[in-house]
Amino acid sequence: RPTLDRTRESLFSIIAGNCIDARVLDLYAGSGALALESISRGAESAVVCDCSREAAKAIRQNIDTLKLQEEVRFLFMQDLQAVALLGKEKAQFDLVFLDPPYRISTDPACKAMAEAGILMDGALVVIEHDVRVTPAPEKCYELIDKRQYRDTVISFYQFNLNDTEEEHGGTVGISGQL
To answer: ∠ CA 18-21-24 to the nearest 5 degrees?
Structure first.
């Protein structure tokens, strides 16, 4: 279930300012389109992850076609394995895309990312999900916006590092635009 072009276009018009110089993580990457689009809109680098052989082939082909071998790293592994590896490497991200197949919950990945310390304070986490599902990530993720496109919802969360240890104290919108 790839992100529709219209939905992706809407998504990037909302988060355009967050792409500039961003370090992007795209779990459940599929073709890698979200990470690659981020690079085209000014992101510094991206890590894309997927465990499907079909997705791996598409991602590698897209990276090669666009000549983005220096900017994009591909991890052929499951989401939680990738998060654990990135945590060990002390990688950090300020823009994350979670667009799993609709039957897979993103809550374990959100918990793992917070515990692994791979998210910058204020990181934007974009979760695409079915309208019948409501993600329930840890309290350190604050829902700051939600947009519905037919049966698809894109939820925007801001990661608040202080909320991993104490109560939340304020709200910051997506690049101040919301």
So the answer is: 70
Give how far the C-alpha of residue 73 lies from the chain's centroid of Cα atoms, to the nearest Å.
14
**What are the distances in angstroms from CA 38 to CA 17, 24, 59?**
10, 8, 14
Helices (H), 20-138: 33-40, 53-65, 79-88, 107-116
Q: Which of 81, 66, 80, 70 is nearest to 32 (CA)?
A: 66
Q: How many Cα atoms within 13 Å fall on the side-chain side of residue 75?
A: 19
* pTM of the model as a whole: 0.88
pLDDT digits (tens, 9 = 90+) for 19-39: 999 999 999 999 999 999 999
60 DSSP 8-state letter: H
Considering only CA atoms, which of 67, 3, 68 is closest in space to residue 31? 3
